[in-house]
Amino acid sequence: MAFTGQLAVITGGGSGVGQTWARQLAADGVIVALLDVNTEGMEATASGFETIHTFEVDITDSGAVSAVFSTIETTLGPVDRVVNAAAIMPFGRLVDEDPRVTNKVMSVNYGGLVNVATAALPPMLERGYGDFISFSSMTGIIPGLLMGAYASSKAAVQHYSEILYHENRDSGLRFCCVCPPAVATPLWRQAEATVVPKLPARGETLTPDQVIAEVERCLEGGKPFAFPGKQTKFGVWMRRLLPGLVWKASHEAEGF
User: Fold this and answer.
1) What phi, psi does 206 have (nearest 5°)?
2) What is the pTM (predicted TM-score) of this model?
3) Looking at the predicted structure, is the pLDDT value of residue 91 above 80?
4) Range of the domain at 134
5) Could you tell me if 245 and 238 are in contact, meaning their C-beta atoms sit under 8 angstroms apart?
6) Which of 25, 84, 102, 186 has a Cα at 20 to 30 A from 5?
């Protein structure tokens, strides 16, 4: 495992990849602090582990995020790893979607990352050690029909994460922005409750373990981006070289 620190903070730790990662780290003796609004989910994550601590916090509230990181550093110790796994993923046509929903997606998926980064990174940078992991998505690289709000938020995450990496590449910290395809988690089921775009639904679906393993390889290799899955790197090149073909496939899949 790439991580040798003592304390990890995971947003969205009440389900999905965040939950799986928290339990993996705790099983290896790491102290884990979970940040989520899903208190029941965090309790499930922490079940059986005395080293998992839960903090109910809305990551869209910058003041609350700053306060909780201060509390964590004071009561649990210096933060060695931050995993930004919190996200929401409703799908639908942009003009039909309630703008409050569209803006909330950006506020959680991108704004939450900004709030966490500005709260967590200053002391980590001062110490010159730690891992900072962002969660983007293949939809942030390959936008598609019916995924406008989510894809836009994840594209913003990618740009922010890339600039963050380059601004701090000589700091001693390791940065990785992971861009997975569909992952078998409650987040994907959240999308299914709205509408499922046909094109990404036809692609591969990964497990949380597969995504986590690829991030660890990313950190060990010192690369700023991780592209888990057999189809992911191919998709990146398709988007760069043949964007018209990607859109053609999306229109044909959705029928409009």
Assistant:
1) -95, 165
2) 0.94
3) yes
4) 7-254
5) yes
6) 186
